[in-house]
Amino acid sequence: MRISGIKCASGSSGKILFLGIVLAIGTELLADESRSAKQMVAIGDPFELPTKPKSCVIQDDLRVASRIFAAQYQEVRPEYMSLIGSFNVTRGQSVKKGQLLATAVTSNLEKMREIYQDYAQLYLGQLRIATNSRKVAEARRERIKNLTEKGVMAASELEQVDSAVVSAKQVEERMQRGLESMQKNVDTYSVQIKQANFFSAIDGVVTELIVDPKSLSGNLMVMAGTVIAKIEKPGRYRAEAQLFDSQVHGVATGMNATVTLPDGNTIVGKVTEVSTLPTEKKVEMSGYSSYSYQNEGDGKASGGLTFYRVIVEFDRAGAILPPNLLADVSIIKSTHQAKFCLPWNAIQIVDGKPSIQILEDGKGWSRIPVRLGKRGRYDVEVETPLAGSTVVKSKIW
């Protein structure tokens, strides 16, 4: 038989050889354990451990909590107050562009349109009468004017006729404005009736509905601008964070970033936008204070701070992320390859200067000053040359 590449004889001599190999391996393992134990004993503190310098990549990054949105989505909103009669989709359903999502009840809209159509007809009739009266008054004025010029009638008669013409024009203008107003209402209700059906503008998935269609009994009244459904196109997503000016320093579009989702998956993305947010202003309302964004565009707040929106885009092919998801985003501002790195808890500050403790010949500790380079979140670059076998004292925390 063959053990670890060694051909062993069978029988008693083979068993003896096998046992010898096992004992040799065990002795070496015990020796390693003994050396580690000696180093531990040399430190003497159970909360201190030996470590060795190693090469590493020092990363200057910014970690922020961000909300996740689909890069392409549609929020379905009625332009006018609407009475939704039915939903044709459910949450989580895939839809195609142009697919019917919901339908509004139009019977009340049609009745209102008929009412305003009737008013429009009344104004139209009154306008025709007023127009005719104005024309009669203008014709009479011409006749009186001719007679006045010939001296047949007094000038005062012409002044009375002029007043009648002005009055007739005023009535005609009022009827014209009334007709236009009624026709505008007719047109508005016609548009509402035409837009009573709500369609998907993109291929995607229904991620939000204002109500569960199964629980809808009767009609649902919604105000203008209310989001009744949200369609998201899966695959491309945006992580959006809102930061102060002190946090956003050094962040620029095109930088690499990582997005860690709540399930632990980490995805690589890029910064696609760094922009100022509208200013948050204090607004006094009926005895209490609230805050609202004023769209001034400069992002300057009363305290001198500037708020920024930072967006990282990433791909999640074939996946549908739930709405209002929060994720941890790490924006990588720069990276540096360091030859010697130590954990931060190996660095000690003595008299304001950094130093480390190294094990000399396995006998005792000696403190030496070091020059530090780039700083990372967990590791720091040591510019002072160190041998790779150097044992350094490091605390557990």
What's the gist of this structure?
The chain has four helices and 25 strands. The protein is an alpha+beta fold.
What's the CATH topology label of the largest domain?
Answer: Helix Hairpins
Terminus-to-terminus distance: 51 Å
Instruction: Give, in spatial order, the strands making up the sheet with the most strands.
Output: 4-13-18-15-14-19
Sheet with the most strands?
A: 6 strands, antiparallel, barrel
Task: Please mark out the parts with pLDDT under 50 across 5 or more consecutive residues, or reply none.
Answer: 1-43, 280-302
- Secondary-structure element order, N to C: EEHEEEEEEHHEEEEEHEEEEEEEEEEEE
Approximate strand percentage: 35-45%
Q: Could you say which structural class the secondary elements and strand pairing correspond to?
A: alpha+beta
